[in-house]
Automatic annotation (TrEMBL):
One MF annotation (Gene Ontology) recorded for this entry: DNA binding
Stated family: Belongs to the LysR transcriptional regulatory family.
GO CC entries: protein-DNA complex
Name by which UniProt lists this protein: LysR family transcriptional regulator
Domain LysR substrate-binding: from-to ranges: 117-316
Residues annotated as domain HTH lysR-type: 6-65
InterPro entries, alphabetized: LysR_HTH_N, LysR_subst-bd, WH-like_DNA-bd_sf, WH_DNA-bd_sf
Pfam families reported in the protein's UniProt record: HTH_1, LysR_substrate
Keyword Transcription: yes
Keywords from the UniProt entry: DNA-binding, Transcription, Transcription regulation
Keyword check for Acyltransferase: no
């Protein structure tokens, strides 16, 4: 998962270990406010909440547990091909389905029936879109464990993960159907530009490409998978693609720069949703819309050997 900053992921891992904001801050030697800001920035980038009750004994949300598990897998030197594996059976109350594995302990082989492991690869915000559906599928299929790979973003990423056995199902970003990967269209998310409400472009009734050519851009860092698809969409939409004024995966830095009138920022999906809800930030009224970002689903060729994989792919697609 290379999108959020390493610092934010380190703080998330420390929070999992510490179990509370104060203990996490003490362990890292930083202020509590810094921990809270970095966690909020990470959650905004991911598109979902990681913890409940940060003011007390911070508890991982179901999505937070899945993310912690994915971080553990990604910390390994080389991902192993995913096959049917035996995982510990998890006692699950009927109304409270829980993830199949917990962080940071690795799975062990129990004295009992094996569980079928399905690996789902997707960008983190896409996982956030169907996290409830995953929980429901696991609750209804106790013999299946779903693990995540959260560093897939492009069609090329998905093709490699599916081909080498690292993933059974992959969701990825695209601007059109890729020629070399069989996939199906899931949904589209509009790409928009945002600026401080006092910025001249934010006050304009219509913003042209010439107007944008004279306005600095703020961007996510180059190693971000979202940055790649945003740059491709801007280029396709004939928006100049030059070195941005600011590159950061810390959303508080981006928001502060926006509110200082430093330029405009392109976003889609949950990130765009959260920006659109913030006071003092406005979506630009472009005269020609930017290309939308497609979310597409692809399934490994060997999925026919695992009926549960095809069942999950259909369940998430509905």
């Amino acid at each position: 998962m290379d999108s959020p900053s390493l610092r934010q992921l380190d703080i998330f891992a420390q929070m999992v270990a510490a179990g509370g904001v104060t203990r996490c801050a003490d362990a890292l030697g930083v202020e509590v406010e810094q921990v809270l800001r970095d966690l909020a920035s990470l959650e905004m980038r991911l598109g979902y909440r990681l913890f409940d009750d940060l003011d007390g004994a911070a508890r991982l949300t179901p999505a937070g547990r899945k993310t912690a598990q994915a971080m553990t897998l990604l910390s390994e030197d080389r991902p192993a091909p995913v096959e049917e594996a035996a995982l510990p059976p998890q006692p699950t109350p009927p109304s409270l389905p829980q993830p199949a594995t917990l962080f940071p302990a690795p799975p062990t082989v129990p004295e009992g029936p094996a569980r079928l492991v399905i690996t789902l690869a997707a960008p983190p915000p896409v996982f956030g879109h169907f996290q409830d559906a995953l929980a429901a599928f696991e609750a209804a299929n106790e013999d299946i464990a779903i693990i995540l790979d959260l560093h897939i973003h492009t069609a090329q990423d998905a093709a490699v993960a599916l081909a080498n056995g690292r993933a059974d199902i992959a969701y990825f970003y695209a601007l059109e159907e890729p020629e070399d990967l069989k996939s199906r269209y899931g949904w589209s998310e509009p790409l928009n530009l945002y600026a401080d409400s006092g910025h001249p472009l934010a006050r304009a009734d219509s913003v042209s490409r010439d107007d944008l050519a004279m306005t600095p851009m703020l961007s996510l860092e180059t190693r971000s998978g979202m940055r790649d698809i945003i740059d491709a969409a801007l280029a396709k939409g004939r928006v100049r693609n030059v070195m941005p004024l600011l590159e950061s995966d810390n959303m508080f830095e981006i928001i502060a720069a926006l509110r200082d009138g430093a330029g405009c920022f392109a976003a889609f999906g949950t990130l765009a949703r959260d920006l659109g809800r913030m006071s003092g930030i406005k979506r630009l009224a472009l005269d020609i819309p930017l290309p939308a970002v497609e979310i597409r689903q692809a399934v490994a060729p060997r999925a026919a050997e695992k009926p549960a994989v095809e069942a999950l792919a259909e369940f998430l697609f509905l």
